[in-house]
Design goal:
It is globular and about 75 Å long. It has one domain: Up-down Bundle (Growth Hormone, Chain: A). The model has no long low-confidence stretch (mean pLDDT about 90). It has 15 helices and no strands. By secondary structure, the chain is mainly α. It comes from Vanrija albida. InterPro entries: MFS, MFS_trans_sf, Proton-linked_MCT. This is Major facilitator superfamily (MFS) profile domain-containing protein. Pfam families: MFS_1.
Amino acid sequence: MFPEDEGTLTLAATLQTGLIYMSIAVLGPILTAFPHLGRTSQIIGLIVSTAAFISSAFVTAAPQLIGTMGIMYPFAAALYLPCATLLFEWFHKRRGMAGGILYSGTGIGGTVTPFIIDALLKRVGYKATMVSAGIFYGAVNAAALLFIRRRIPLAPRVGSAPRPRPRIDWAVARTWALWSGVLVLFLSSLGNFNPTLWMPTFADTVGATKPGGVALVSIMNAASVPGLLATGWLSDRLPIKLAVSTNCLVGALAALLPWGLGTSSAPLIVFSVVWGLTALSFAALWTPIISRICQDDPTLPTLVFSTFAFLRGVGNFTSGPVSTQLLKTGRFHGAVGAYGSTNFGAMLVYTAVTVFSAAVAGAFFPA
């Protein structure tokens, strides 16, 4: 629709993902202090994000997509955040598995939705596709909200007095568990977005067409579904430091070897599967990490989750500019595999080093 505004469309897509994380970072402290606003925030988030879908069907210029899908749609964070943190009230022994199941929805959506949207675009056109997607999105999420509720009741309001606020134990800010978790999340987020961001371009560069770059990203998302379930299941049974370090170490090796040496479809398929099973499944480890940090204090998970989301947002916003600059360097020209035959060498090393550094940091996470 807007062939001369690719930069604007890219900005809208970057804002969409990044602002979801940043919105969670803002909402977390608010809902920690005022937990009774949880359901209200979800309803507002549902209305605004649904309106973003539907209104984007009627855009006539590319910058309008920045306002609809880039700025309005991230209000979906208000819909999502209470779901992710109420999990800590409902599960204990199998909390990791519950988190894996919860986050597997992202992998399923990332695998299935592009094919559905593509088919609709070809059959009914852009406007009808976005209106249909918005109505479906709003209806399904509204139905899901009927089943979301707290397990731990909030303190009742007495007469006209203000509702008592939860008391936050700020001693958590002095724990090694928090800061080592922050370090792991920050380092892993710096490199985690690069494969899904650049694989289509990389596949075109090396001439990998069967499957192509878009299909390879779909393979990553598909592999993340069993990866999230398996990672969550294992996190309930293994020491968390072992689960974190193994996940990040295997992801780093995948970036170094099958992707770094891959100049054909076969190694890129191997990389996509392994990356989906590990790096894209890292979200399942958020739950046990946060559980260890919060020590079953019901007031802390939302606050810690929002901190992690902020770090994830930093990784999302910086991955594009940093990797773009790395692609301009020719430091690995002439090296083996894709390191030397493409301009991706520095970015491949950066991805592997940041994820490996997260593995090292994870090894020091307290038992």
